[in-house]
Fold this sequence. Notes:
single chain, alpha/beta, six-stranded mixed sheet, four-stranded parallel sheet, 23 helices, 42% helix, globular
Amino acid sequence: MPYFEFESSKCIPERKAHAVVKGEGEDITHALPQGYLATIPGTISERGCAYCGAKHVIGTPMKDVIHISHGPVGCTYDTWHTKRYISDNDNFQLKYTWASDMKETHIVFGGDILLKKTINEAFDAHPEVKRMTIYQTCSSALIGDDMEATAREVMKERPDVDIFVCNSPGFAGPSQSGGHHKINIAWINNKVGTVEPEIYSDYVINYVGDYNIQGDNEIMVDYFKRMGIQVLSSFTGNGSYDELRSMQKAHLNVLECARSAEYICNELRVRYGIPRLDIDGFGFEPLSDALLKIGRFFGIEDRAQKIIDEEIARWKPELDWYKRRLQGVKVALWPGGSKLWHWADVIHEEMGVKVVSLYTKFGHQGDMEKGIARAEVGTLAIDDPNELEGIEAMDNLEPDVIFTGVRPGEVAKKKNIQYLNAHAYHNGPYKGFEGWVRFARDIYNAHYSPIHQLATIDISKDVIQTEKGCISRKSISDVNFMEEESENPNERAYTGDYDCVSRLRDKDYSEYFPKSVVA
C-alpha cells in the first residue's frame, strides 16, 4: 500500500493511512486511503458537521419552505447563503433564514416554548408560505427538546401548514455525510406518500441528488422535458415540498449524487419498487451516456440522441477551443463528495488538464474508491486533510488551479495559486453541455488571468515590466501558437449568455405535454 506521509503530520502517525499516491498499474486494491472515519485527535479537520449536511446540503434547496434551525444563531449563519442554491420562485430560500436563537437560559430550562414562538413568528411573517422544515442542532439535541411534539401542536392550531422535523445534530456523524443519511431517511419515513400527484406523462422520474447550484438542476430538467419525461420531484434543488411528498409515484429514480441521496433511492426501491438509475451530468460523454440510458429505460432513445446531437453540434467547437489551451494545466481536485469522482477523469479527457491530487473532506470510502479508480497515475489522494497538509501538497505538487471551497481557496490564493469554487461555482452552472464549456472557460480564465500573474510579483524586489502594453488572457495562452492555430475557424471561445438558466423557465414543452401543464 503506497501510503504517503506528510511532514506536517509525522507527529500524528495515524494520518499516514489517510493519503496515498496512485502508482503504475495500481487500482483501489493497492491505493486506497482510509475514509469516513472519525477525525484523529490532534489534527485540525476542515470537515462540516452532520447538521450542516442535513440542512445546508439537502434541506435548504427546497424552494417554497421556511427553514428553521433550533439552536444558536451561529449554526444557522454557518449554513446560510454560502451556496448558490437558486430557485425559480425568486430565490426565497436564499433570501431568508430563521433560527430559534437558543441562549444559555434555554439550555437550562428547555427550548420548546422558544421553538413554538419562533415557528409562529415565521409563519406570520410569511403568510403565503405554508411549509416548514426544522433542523436539530447539538444544543437542542443534548437537552432533549421534543421538536416533533411542538410541530404537531402547531399543525393542530394551524391546519393549513405542514412541518417536517429533521433530527440531525452536528455530532450525529463524523462528517456532513452523516446528515445526508439522516434527512434522507426522515423524509421517506415521514413525508413520502402523503400527497397524490397529477401524472400527465407515460414517463415519470424523480431527479435525485442535485441541488440546483447556479441552475444545474434546471439545465438537466430541461433535457428531461425535451425527451417528454415528467419530472415528478427534484430532491431537492429547486424542489417543491409537496412534490417531494409524492415521490412514490415515479417510474424511475434518476440519481446524480450517489453520496448524498442514494439512501432515499434505495428505500424507494424497497418500499415502492421504483428502480434506481445512476447518471453523471458533467462532461459531454458522461452526459450523453446518461441521457441515452434514461432513453433506453423508457424506449425513447431516439429523443435522447436528437438532444445529444443538437447540443454537441452547438457546444463542441467551444469546448475544443479551451481544450487546446488547457493542455497540461495542473489541477488539484479538492471538492467534497461526488465531484471527486464525477470530475476525476473527464476533465483530463475532455479538457486536457492534468489532475495531480484529489481529496474529500466529507465523502465516504466509496467516493475515494471511485475517485482513485478514475484518477491518473501519480495522483495524490487524501482523506480529511487539514490546512497544513493542504499547504504541503500545494508546495510539493505546484498545481496551477485548485477546485475547492472558499476556506481552502483563500489559502491557495495566499500561495499564489488560483482556485475555482467547486462547491458553489464561480460562473456556473457547470452541468449540461453548455455548463461544461462554462467550466472550461472558468479554468481558462483562472489560469491565464493577467491580474493573477501580476499578483505574483513582489513589488519590493521584482522588476515590473511596462513595455508589454495591454496583455489579455488570449495573448498569454496563445503565445506559442501559429496564427492559423490561434484563429482556427472550427473553434471558438464561449458564446453563451451570462444567465443561461432563466430563459428555460418559460420554455414551451407542449410537443409532449398537455398545454394545461406547460402553460
